[in-house]
Amino acid sequence: MYRDKLDMERLEDLVQGDRIHRSLYLDADIFALEMERIYCRGWVFVGHESQVPNPGDFFASTIGTQPVLLVRHDDGEVHVIHNRCGHRGTLVCNEPFGNTGRSFRCAYHGWSFKTNGELLAAPLKNGYPDCYDLKAREFGMVSIRTGSYRGFVFANVAGTSAITFEDYVRPMRCVVDDVVDRSPSGAIRVSTRGQRYIYRGNWKEQVDNGGDTYHPPYGHESTTSQGGRQFQRREGQEQGARIDENQSIWDRMPMSVFPGGNNHIGFHPGAEEPRSGAVWEEYMALMVGRHGAERAAEIVREKFHLGLFYPNFLLHLLSQHVRVVHPIDVNRTEVRVYPITFVGAPEAFNRQIIRYLNVTHSPASLIQTDDLECFRRVHEGLRNSVPEWVILGRGFGQDLAIEDGVRSFGTSEVAIRNHYQAWKLMMTKQ
């Protein structure tokens, strides 16, 4: 659609080995092509099956700038469908989540649709000529191809992609397993209610941040005490994480990157310290009862800080939540944050997860607000035309090959370079 506006060879030149051109954050035509080639052709996170537990339940999201719905049909299957009437293009569902019963109904002309997206009824349909086949897919709320792993649902609008869902998700399964296995019942619940905020800046700034452990001692300096510790961030640990300029601590967090732009980061400094207290002991008793002492201890051992599923989904393990990036336009991005709680865990344990998430990643939090301010400053600073390039050279040339991908030291910018290699592949593939 936008290929006539952009020279594909020039587009490829905008991503170099250790740098990217500033226009990737500022050019409206590039943004439009990203919505077409990255968000429509790639695997994009939509939601978790626990957000639609019952037939008729729906959860509204976006794929790029396109509104979609995660819905559980009356046969129990979960679908992703375009939130658009097949008649005049009206947004059908105007609520963020809820239960629609057995069908959706468009407010404009009364067309109704099954919860799998198929057209159910069109009022006065005898007014349409015989050449119209109202059973055709185009007249429904069109369904979208999906892939799912342990309840996390991804969609691919185009129906084809450069990478299969299995190859896309395989190196990241360990991150999903790490959070789901911590539930005493083996099941998690992702809330439909969460934090939502908009920042002035490009969507890639939040994605870049998901592979950046170079910034915490500086960007989050205001969150620390004199001893270089943050506030308490989770149940069972009275002290918060270490946030200081001791580079060796941060470099011990292995940074691993994979095809498709994905990455995961090793555990946060201080997260491995023992946890205690009545609530923690009650939780661990449930885990030991399910798995035995040795396996339970292995499950709760800290392995990851977060995983980034390119292009829009961060699965955060320290502050236990799902964070989803929703592009609005080239200069504006919405971020939505949903807590993850454990089915079968003590109520106080789950309540503390939500409490600490409010402290760390709400619009008035002590951590996320630092990042949002930096995103704004990045976007303002890049309006300067000189220099033209954004440097991503930390750790360049020091990568180590691993199964499925590459690993480097914690403060390396290898993950961000990997994002843009995936970006270049998707954007320039005809």
| Helix content class | 25-40%
Looking at the overall shape, the CATH architecture of the largest domain is Alpha-Beta Complex
Structural class: alpha+beta
Q: What is the straight-line distance between the termini?
A: 11 Å
The global form is globular
Tally of helical segments = 13
**Main pleated-sheet profile:** 10 strands, antiparallel
Estimate what percentage of residues fall within beta strands.
15-25%
Number of separate strands: 22
List keywords for this structure.
ten-stranded antiparallel β-sheet, 2 domains, 430 residues, 25% strand, Rieske Iron-sulfur Protein
Task: Write up this protein.
With 430 residues, the protein is of the alpha+beta class. The protein has two domains: 44-156, 3-layer Sandwich (Rieske Iron-sulfur Protein), CATH 2.102.10.10; 165-428, Naphthalene 1,2-dioxygenase Alpha Subunit, Chain A, domain 1 (Alpha-Beta Complex), CATH 3.90.380.10. 27% of the residues lie in helices and 25% in strands. The chain has helices spanning 8-13, 23-26, 28-37, 165-169, 173-180, 203-209, 216-219, 247-251, 278-291, 293-300, 347-361, 368-381, 414-428, and strands spanning 19-21, 44-48, 57-63, 66-72, 78-82, 97-99, 103-105, 112-114, 119-121, 143-149, 152-156, 188-190, 195-200, 255-257, 263-266, 304-309, 313-316, 321-329, 332-342, 389-391, 400-402, 405-408. The strands form four sheets. Strands 12, 13, 14, 15, 16, 17, 18, 19, 21 and 22 form a ten-stranded antiparallel sheet that branches. The chain has a seven-stranded antiparallel sheet with strand order 2-11-10-5-4-3-6. Strands 7-8-9 form a three-stranded antiparallel sheet, with no helix packed on it. Helix 9 crosses helix 10. The model has no long low-confidence stretch (mean pLDDT 91).
